[in-house]
Design a protein that fits this description.
Largest sheet: none
Structural class: mainly alpha
Number of helices: 4
Distance between the termini: 61 Å
Strand content: under 5%
Order of helices and strands: HHHH
Helix content: over 70%
Shape: rod-shaped
Number of strands: 0
């Protein structure tokens, strides 16, 4: 390979070769190798973020696919409970002679309060609840890690929940 370089570059390569007791050709080859590796590294670094984002999207989508059915069931059960509770509350207050308009105002106020409370995530009670959940989650993760360590290769007998013999 023949290279045409500026005189200053040629002088610098000759000095580097002399300082390292190698030929100018070897010093030039090493310099080109370093340059090529740096370029490849830059290209890989440029591609890393989009690849990482794609991986994260796949993982989130996979997680959503596992959780959404349960969230839907919980939402249905919650809404069903709310409807039945509101109906019973209305009947009870109607029996006591409270006008329907006043009952509906109470239900609307309860709805507005519940809606406001959902977004109160900075309160001490909510922070304590979240901290407790994190502790329990970490304990569960540690238990799972301990279970995996009991197995020789981290696997068990397929479909039985028992370790391989």
């Amino acid at each position: 390979m023949t290279l045409w370089v500026k005189p200053g570059v040629k002088t610098a390569l000759a000095r580097i070769a002399h300082d390292n007791n190698v030929s100018v050709s070897e010093a030039s080859a090493k310099g080109l190798e370093v340059f090529a590796r740096a370029k490849i590294h830059d290209q890989e670094e440029t591609l890393f973020e989009p690849r990482m984002q794609a991986m994260m999207r796949r993982e989130i989508r996979s997680s959503d696919n596992r959780h959404v059915p349960f969230e839907i069931k919980n939402a249905i059960a919650s809404e069903q409970t709310r409807i039945l509770t509101a109906d019973l509350y209305k009947r009870m207050l109607l029996k006591e002679g409270i006008p329907l308009k006043e009952i509906n105002a109470k239900l609307d106020a309860a709805y507005n309060l519940a809606r406001a409370n959902i977004f109160k995530t900075k309160t001490p009670k909510f922070k304590a609840l979240l901290a407790e959940w994190k502790r329990n989650y970490e304990d569960l993760s540690a238990d799972r890690q301990d279970d995996r360590q009991d197995l020789p290769d981290g696997t068990g007998e397929a479909g039985t929940g028992k370790p391989e013999d």
